[in-house]
Amino acid sequence: MKLKVCGMRDPDNAREMVEGIHPDWMGLIFYPKSPRFVDDHSAAAIKALPVDKVGVFVNASLTEILHKIVLFGLKAVQLHSGESVAFVEELRQKTNVLIFKVFSVNEEIDWKSMEPYLENIDYFLFDTFTEAYGGSGKTFNWEILLDYPFEKPFLLSGGLGLENIAAIKALDSKIPQMAGVDINSKFEMEPGMKNLDLISRFRRDI
Ligand SMILES: O=C(O)c1ccccc1NCC(=O)[C@H](O)[C@H](O)COP(=O)(O)O
């Protein structure tokens, strides 16, 4: 199962995480209102680390996203707001990084509304709905995902912690398209600072 650790912004904490845990992806949040917002200076330091970086964007312009891809050597972008199909299509044409399209889950998922994105994205990412866009620390009702109708792989996110490991594995065994998990606030000492011991345990047992 692939592992994305999101919301890193401290270069030393990020380096220790890469060296000790070797996640598949590290998420850098370029949304100024997030308590995990990474400034350009820290992102530049993190750029040198040997891990694939995912830029997380909320209501960002195409110009900003493309600029950050080049500036910080991003390997993927996570579109975390209501980006239109046309926006995603244009992004796909202008860059060759992976595209993760987030769907925030409240009570239901409208599978039909996801369909037009299929040809221009690499992964869907399901997160728990919150007015703050992400980092809610809460899980959603994963039963909904048992009806997942596409072949496109997806990542599970939203409030994942050590206490969810058994349930995550059970879900993974039922849905072949579930490619991995995205962890964040349940592994923090403070916003943006990860507890590497907790993440190691998660990595070992997942
Ligand atoms: O984490 C944030 O502060 C955040 C804010 C705005 C948009 C996205 C954000 N996080 C992106 C992620 O991919 C998180 O890992 C995801 O929302 C799950 O977070 P959590 O519920 O804390 O596990």
What does this structure look like?
This protein has a single domain, classed as TIM Barrel (Alpha-Beta Barrel). Helix content is 31%, strand content 23%. It has 206 residues and is an alpha/beta fold. It is globular, with a radius of gyration of 16 Å. It contains seven helices and ten strands. Helix 1 (11-21) packs parallel to helix 7. The model has no long low-confidence stretch (mean pLDDT 97). Residues 4-202 form the N-(5'phosphoribosyl) anthranilate isomerase (PRAI) domain. GO terms for molecular function: phosphoribosylanthranilate isomerase activity. Pathway: Amino-acid biosynthesis; L-tryptophan biosynthesis; L-tryptophan from chorismate: step 3/5. Keywords: Amino-acid biosynthesis, Aromatic amino acid biosynthesis, Isomerase, Tryptophan biosynthesis. It comes from Rhodonellum psychrophilum GCM71 = DSM 17998.
Protein topology:
Blueprint: E1 2-6, H1 11-21, E2 25-29, H2 40-47, E3 52-57, H3 62-71, E4 76-79, H4 85-94, E5 98-105, H5 111-114, E6 123-128, E7 154-156, H6 165-174, E8 178-183, E9 188-190, E10 193-194, H7 196-205
Parallel strand pairs: 1-2, 1-8, 2-3, 3-4, 4-5, 5-6, 6-7, 7-8
Antiparallel strand pairs: 9-10
Helix pairs in contact: 1-7
Bound molecules: the ligand O=C(O)c1ccccc1NCC(=O)[C@H](O)[C@H](O)COP(=O)(O)O.
